């Protein structure tokens, strides 16, 4: 589905462990893998100074990825200092990355790992999907489990669909990626639509199980044409709860979601569905940024 992966790690999120699983990521269809770390500047009497020793240590730790590279796969290590967001965007452009992998803690509110000053600025400017994973899981996987996780990185997607323009854009993005996917990557999609009842009991709802299922069947037909195995699920209840239940019951690899707009995504006082999913889901979340004008 994706071919050029950028893995950003701070050595606290567990993602640096992936340096030993390049062949496993290659088995998931990755043809170019870039490991990125940003080393903070030292303060010497109030004067910012490049920490050359820290750069060397980071490069040494990540360069393990260069030792076992399958044929046809490129691996790069990028160590930068200062201007982290600019350097990540530069790395994405230089290596033509189409997916970025990040780690975030699971807390009541997103902490600095995902939407601190650096990543919030990155999200506002990034144009490629990002896959968010929990360090608590990555750090505790055995090598055998991590190998399998890398091989099945995006094999089975639960797609958050609700008939909105943003949901249609999400499906279109998945369709475009799936049309050029390696056979080892995406295999199955589950289109999930949760009907939430906000009105008074007995008041007719604009969405019914029948109308929702009819629209899902149309979307399913478009994805079926790509050779994917596509399932649909319609439920009623709290959207976040039911999506997390679906993810557990169907054994999905990740939940795919987008947001109508980035300002809404970053609005903590009135969080939207993507915001809440990123904060609370233990499953990996594939976030596709909204369409941007060029």
TL;DR of this structure?
It contains 12 helices and 12 strands.
Number of domains: 2
Structural class: alpha/beta
Please count the helical segments: 12
Low-confidence stretches: 106-115
> What's the helix-strand series?
EHEEEHEHEHHEHHEHEHEHEHHE
Do you know the CATH architecture of the largest domain?
3-Layer(aba) Sandwich
In the sheet with the most strands, the strands line up as 5-2-1-6-7-12-11-8-9-10
CATH topology of the largest domain: Rossmann fold
* Tertiary shape: globular
Please estimate the helix content: 25-40%
What is the CA-atom radius of gyration, in angstroms? 20 Å
Beta content comes to 15-25%
What does this protein structure show overall?
The chain is α/β, with parallel strands linked by helices and 294 residues long. It has two domains: 1-151, Rossmann fold (3-Layer(aba) Sandwich); 154-294, Rossmann fold, CATH 3.40.50.620. Helices cover 37% and strands 22% of the residues. It has helices spanning 22-27, 52-62, 84-95, 112-115, 117-125, 135-138, 143-151, 165-178, 209-224, 239-250, 262-265, 273-280; strands spanning 4-8, 32-39, 42-44, 47-49, 74-81, 99-103, 130-133, 156-160, 188-195, 229-236, 254-258, 285-288. The strands form two sheets. It has a ten-stranded mixed sheet with strand order 5-2-1-6-7-12-11-8-9-10, sandwiched between helices. A two-stranded antiparallel sheet has the order 3-4. Residues 106-115 have low confidence and may be disordered.
């Amino acid at each position: 589905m994706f071919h050029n992966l950028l893995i950003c790690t701070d050595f606290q999120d567990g993602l640096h462990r992936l340096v030993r699983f390049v062949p496993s990521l290659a088995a998931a269809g990755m043809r170019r893998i870039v490991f990125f770390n940003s080393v903070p500047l030292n303060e010497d009497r109030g004067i910012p100074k490049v920490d050359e020793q820290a750069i060397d240590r980071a490069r040494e730790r990540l360069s393990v990825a260069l030792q076992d590279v399958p044929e046809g796969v490129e691996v790069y290590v990028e160590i930068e200092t200062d201007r982290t967001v600019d350097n990540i965007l530069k790395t994405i452009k230089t290596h033509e990355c189409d997916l970025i992998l990040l780690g975030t803690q699971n807390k009541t509110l997103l902490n600095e790992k995902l939407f601190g000053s650096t990543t919030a600025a990155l999200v506002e400017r990034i144009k490629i999907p990002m896959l968010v994973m929990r360090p608590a899981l990555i750090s505790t996987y055995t090598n055998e489990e991590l190998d399998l996780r890398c091989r099945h990185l995006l094999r089975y997607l639960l797609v958050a669909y609700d008939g909105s323009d943003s949901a249609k854009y999400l499906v279109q993005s998945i369709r475009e990626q799936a049309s050029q996917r390696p056979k080892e990557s995406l295999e199955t999609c589950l289109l999930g639509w949760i009907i939430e009842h906000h009105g008074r009991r007995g008041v007719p709802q604009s969405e019914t199980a029948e109308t929702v299922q009819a629209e899902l069947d149309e979307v399913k037909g478009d994805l079926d044409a790509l050779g994917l195995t596509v399932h649909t699920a319609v439920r009623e209840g709290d959207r976040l709860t039911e999506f997390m239940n679906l993810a557990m019951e169907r054994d999905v690899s990740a939940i795919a979601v987008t947001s109508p707009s980035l300002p809404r995504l970053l609005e903590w006082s009135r969080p939207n569905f993507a915001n809440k999913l990123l904060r609370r889901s233990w499953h990996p979340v594939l976030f596709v940024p909204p369409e941007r004008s060029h």
